[in-house]
Amino acid sequence: MDDVVLLTLIIALVFGAIGVSSPLMTLYLQSLGANCAQIALIMASTAGLGLACSYAWGRISDTLGRRKPLIAAGLCVAPAPTSRSARSRRRRWPG
Fold first, then answer.
1. Domain count, the chain
2. Which domain, by its residues, includes 73?
3. 3-state SS, one letter per residue, for the chain
4. What span, in angstroms and rounded, lies between the C-alpha atoms of 26 and 39?
5. pLDDT digits (tens, 9 = 90+) for 47-84
6. Does the residue 13 lie in any domain?
């Protein structure tokens, strides 16, 4: 399979997963007690950080020229925020 086609399919799957999970995330945040402004701030910051981080990782990858160690590091670091949230004892929105 051509690299461009494979990359396009992977990006389509990522955006599809984000599109499917976004409405559920807003409902989850609402169930925790977040108001509309807080939900909008969280969702916007997620999108903004995703954009900034993908640019930064691409720049680092281009500079170092070694993609596989960076991919492995990203896969190791990515679950950290989720595991931190899962271990939290607080189940309500602060405030």
1. 1
2. 35-81
3. CCHHHHHHHHHHHHHHHHHHHHHHHHHHHHHCCCCHHHHHHHHHHHHHHHHHHHHHHHHHHHHHCCHHHHHHHHHHHCCHHHHHHHCCCCCCCCC
4. 6
5. 888 888 888 878 887 887 777 787 788 788 878 777 76
6. no
